[in-house]
Amino acid sequence: MTTFTRLARRWGFALLWVTLPFLTGAAFAEALDPRSRPVQIVASSGLWGLWALTLAGALVPRTVSLTLVRIVAPASVLAAGWAAIAVPDGIGVAQVSALVITSVVAVVSMLAAIGDEFVNGSSYGEERRMLLRPPGALIVGPLESVWLLVVLGATAGPMLLAAGTWVAGTVALLVGWTVAAVGSRNLHQLARRWVVFVPAGVVLVDQAVLNDALLVPRPQVSRLAAAPVATTAHDLTAGALGLALEATFTEPQTIVPAAVRRVRGESEPIEMIDVPAVLFTPSRPGAVLAEAARRRLPVG
Predict the structure, then answer these.
(1) Which residue in 87, 105, 143, 161 is a FRET match for 193, CA 20 to 30 A apart?
(2) Residue 241: beta bridge partners?
(3) Does residue 201 contact residue 216 with C-beta atoms inside 8 Å?
(4) Tens digit of each residue's pLDDT (9 = 90 or more) over 241-275
(5) Rg (CA), the chain
(6) How far apart are CA 262 and CA 53, in angstroms?
């Protein structure tokens, strides 16, 4: 990895985020100009507050910071879209500039390399944490719906109150912030799914499919490679899209699958399974194999 690549991964998002007030400020100012003074104050305070909070998260990358960034950065596109529609004189250079820069920031926030940088900020000592891809069933529909509920739930109440709609604003504040808190917590679980390299071996942490983390000691890792088409390894990918890796062991490892919910809300009895190999889907499979090779684990 070149020095430029390392710097881009570490500081790229933060540098882009710093530019937002300069490149989007005019668009928001024009859109808010005809609004009432309370709406201007609440909207401006909210924009500056979220900008500062997200910048702080970008400067101190952690798992929780990643959740914050991946909620707020795409939300900035929605805000820029509203500013483009709400401006009295029609879309101009300022509005186009705001839409472009917020779109770039949103895309960068979703890059797998950026995600790895943030989650690895929570590592201890010689750990190296690397993200797993989201479960496939969440990709189109559920994930976006929860994100939208979080964004709307957090913003609707304050804006309605600022506009003087007291009853609807109070209800939206109480309900919306509750929904936003629950939704944010659910989204945060996606940032807590990792493959972790430690001096003792490899750990798979994924509460979507495992009740307990799977720790495989270094001497018991037989091979780590791209999964063959006809593999019989135990599937721990949670249906994630993308290249799956197969970890083969010198002796069967005991896993505790996550309890399966029945229709009536009851859980299946927890059982332990001995497996000779498992499948998992990291966000950056090539980087995972490279890190495994660097730690002298059998690869390929």
Answers:
(1) 105
(2) none
(3) yes
(4) 999 999 999 999 999 888 654 444 555 566 889 99
(5) 22
(6) 40
